[in-house]
Specification:
The complex is a heterodimer of chains A (267) and B (343).
Chain A (H helix, E strand, L loop, with lengths): L1 E10 L2 E11 L4 E5 L6 H8 L7 E6 L2 E2 L5 H7 E4 L11 H6 L12 H13 L15 H15 L11 E5 L7 H18 L2 E5 L3 H7 L2 E6 L2 E6 L1 H4 L2 H8 L4 E4 L6 E4 L8
Parallel strand pairs in A: 3-8, 3-9, 6-7, 7-8
Antiparallel strand pairs in A: 1-2, 1-4, 4-5, 9-10, 11-12
Chain B lengths: L1 H26 L7 H12 L7 H35 L11 H19 L7 H21 L8 H26 L2 H12 L7 H20 L1 H7 L3 H6 L4 H23 L5 H13 L3 H25 L8 H19 L5
Helix pairs in contact in B: 1-3, 1-13, 2-3, 3-8, 3-11, 3-12, 3-13, 4-5, 4-6, 4-7, 4-11, 5-6, 5-11, 6-7, 8-11, 9-13, 12-13, 12-14, 13-14
The chains are: A alpha/beta (267), B mainly alpha (343).
């Protein structure tokens, strides 16, 4: 269980996050939506305990994340950013193995190497294990980064502590096929491994298809929080994004579909 | 894992190379010693024989400490280069980048120009102290100026650029001092800026030795965290690394190693830049290998350079800074061209 308790974050005189509270549950996929500058990245960095809130607290299984040791945090929560810049040319296998760093001392154990192989298989990157990261395409790089991040929280922890995966706009540099593939894998991972996922995405359509729950963020506050069909309403979207799409509901699946036409922006 | 075992063999090979170079470096010079001469001198020293010949005393008091100082200074520069390149995530960084070596050179230049006037005389220690103080003070200046309230993603970049600016300032200070200085002092400043190990004695070996080992051992402990930094500051934090603490620890280690080494030998360029690259081309960027490897290879390269500096124009000596570039650049360039290193 992940709890955000009245979070506030300020940069100078501006308040970027203004009193956000929410509960996130294991095995579910939560996506945060919002226009540019709504505070999505700030919020997810606070939830991942990479940023200290000015007020409020982030609780992992009821314990204040700010008081945890970096390494203990790293064993239970992982973060994937939109593009990871790797400074030196390193073999793919070594990069994926970095995900296990919080779990071993000087040298990886047998379990670490085994997990490394499993995640590489899960993401179809085994064939490139010995290649240099710098020679991969953008999509391949992101798959390798995803494998690294999952390696970090692949297996259950002692005491059944909740494992949390944070995604900060991970789809930005992927084509549509890889975006769908990626979201399917995240869903499968969340439900099979009982991992709590919180992500920021830009694509409302993908969010509607894959999320268990959506949080719509606007001006540092939560505008709407709930199932996709309850959040993606015409009035919410107009308030948050200043667009008026046609909102359709598939009668067979109950899923929401958005149609944007030219002229759907509102003044 | 196989790569690990291969790393270990590389380290063994580098160690053997370092020992071989050191033997050559104590054997050859302005005067050559045979194996028998060397053994006799060493035996005489160990047994406390008071009647050593002049040659034997030269060997014990000058040649051997110089060879050891080469290893220590080369190791400090090599490890400093590896640490700074890893920390700044940038392959063109030198260990002196945060102001350390230009500050040390400025301290030394001040000593050459004003030392006689101030009448502060600590014997042979005055110059190293002036240089070391200059190195530490200028580095502190860089840190203080680069420090802002926002410890964000730009903090390392700000440090790098502040270092560049402060270096430029001290270099112009050195230029000014050598411009106004009269001849012996002006020549000394130039000579010191090209580096020399001719001042080596057992005292300098002890002081530099403490700084080198005192930096190397904790540096090895930070190798894994520096690896994590390859993928970025936020990502390393997410992997459980305390990036802020890592940054200050690594910078402190680098300043101690480089300021002390530079204080005794002058500014020796290029070793700290190319040693990490040569090793990365051979074995990749894993700092768990690079740090120890760059200590061994840095020492070896500097020994070779010093040997060349002593032998080429003997009995005269070349400044070592001239040789490090002449020896290092061809090796570096040929390796750069041979592999897909920069991809």
């Amino acid at each position: 269980m992940l709890t955000a308790n009245q979070l506030v974050f300020r940069a100078g005189s501006r308040t970027l996050i203004d009193g956000v509270s929410a509960q996130f549950e294991p095995a579910r996929l939560h996506l945060i939506l919002g226009p540019n500058g709504a505070g999505k990245s700030t919020l997810i960095r606070m939830l991942a305990a990479l940023l200290q809130p000015a007020e409020g607290s982030v609780l992992y299984d009821g314990n204040d994340a700010a008081r945890w040791h970096e390494r203990d945090l790293a064993r239970r929560r992982a973060l994937l950013s939109q593009a990871v810049d790797v400074a030196f040319s390193i073999p793919v296998r070594e990069l994926v193995l970095m995900g296990r760093y919080p779990h071993f001392g000087a040298r990886p154990g047998a379990a670490d190497l085994e997990i490394c192989d499993e995640v590489m298989r899960f993401f179809d990157v085994t064939a490139m294990a010995d290649r240099s990261y710098g020679t991969l395409s953008g999509g391949e790089k992101q798959r390798v980064q995803f494998a690294r991040v999952l390696a970090q929280i692949w297996r259950p922890l002692e005491g059944a502590a909740t494992r949390i995966l944070f995604l900060d706009e991970p789809l930005t540099f992927l084509d549509i096929r890889h975006q769908i593939d990626f979201m399917q894998k995240v869903r499968a991972f969340a439900s099979q491994k009982d991992v709590l996922v919180v992500g920021v995405v830009h694509d409302l359509g993908l969010a509607a298809q894959f999320a268990d729950r959506l949080l719509l963020l606007c001006d540092g506050r939560i505008l709407a929080d709930g199932a996709p069909r309850d959040v993606l309403t015409e009035s919410n979207l107009r308030t948050a994004f200043a667009v008026s799409p046609v909102v359709l509901t598939d009668p067979a699946t109950g899923r929401t579909h958005l149609v944007f036409e030219s002229g759907s922006t509102t003044p | 894992m196989n790569a690990r075992r291969l790393d270990r063999w590389y380290l063994v090979a580098l160690f053997v190379l370092m020992v071989a170079t050191t033997i050559a470096s104590i054997r050859y010079g302005a005067m050559d010693f045979s194996a028998h001469d060397m053994a006799a001198a060493a035996w005489g020293r160990l047994t406390g024989n008071p009647n050593l010949t002049l040659d034997q005393r030269i060997f014990i008091q000058l040649r051997v400490p110089r060879a050891i100082l080469c290893l220590l200074v080369g190791a400090s520069l090599g490890v400093g280069g590896t640490l700074m390149q890893a920390l700044f995530r940038n392959p063109i960084v030198e260990p002196g980048l945060v102001g350390t070596s230009s500050g040390a050179a400025f301290g030394a230049a001040l000593f050459y120009v004003f030392g006689a006037l101030l009448k502060i005389n600590l014997g042979g220690w005055t110059l190293p102290l002036a240089a070391c103080a200059g190195g530490v003070l200028s580095t502190y200046l860089v840190f203080a100026l680069a420090h802002t309230k926002h410890e964000g993603r730009s903090s390392i970049l700000r440090l790098l650029l502040t270092g560049l600016a402060i270096n430029a300032l001290f270099m112009s200070g050195i230029g000014f001092l050598s411009y106004v200085a009269r001849d012996p002092a002006a020549r000394s400043i130039i000579y010191w800026n090209l580096g020399t190990l001719s001042g080596a004695d057992w005292n300098s070996v002890i002081v530099v030795g403490i700084a080198t080992l005192g930096g190397l051992i904790p540096a090895i402990a930070f190798a894994k965290s520096l690896n994590a930094l390859m993928i970025g500051e936020d990502e390393a934090t997410a992997l459980g690394v305390n990036v802020r603490r890592l940054k200050w620890m690594v910078l402190t280690i680098n300043v101690i190693m480089v300021a002390v080494a530079t204080a005794f030998t002058g500014v020796i360029s290029f070793v700290g830049l190319i040693v990490p690259h040569i090793l990365r081309i051979l074995r990749g960027p894993d700092n768990r290998f690079l740090i120890l490897g760059s200590a061994l290879l840095g020492g070896t390269l500097l020994s070779i350079a010093d040997l060349v500096a002593r032998v080429l124009l003997r009995p005269a000596e070349l400044p070592i800074g001239i040789v490090t570039a002449v020896v290092g650049v061809p090796v570096f360039l040929s390796l750069l061209r041979s592999r897909e290193y920069l991809s």
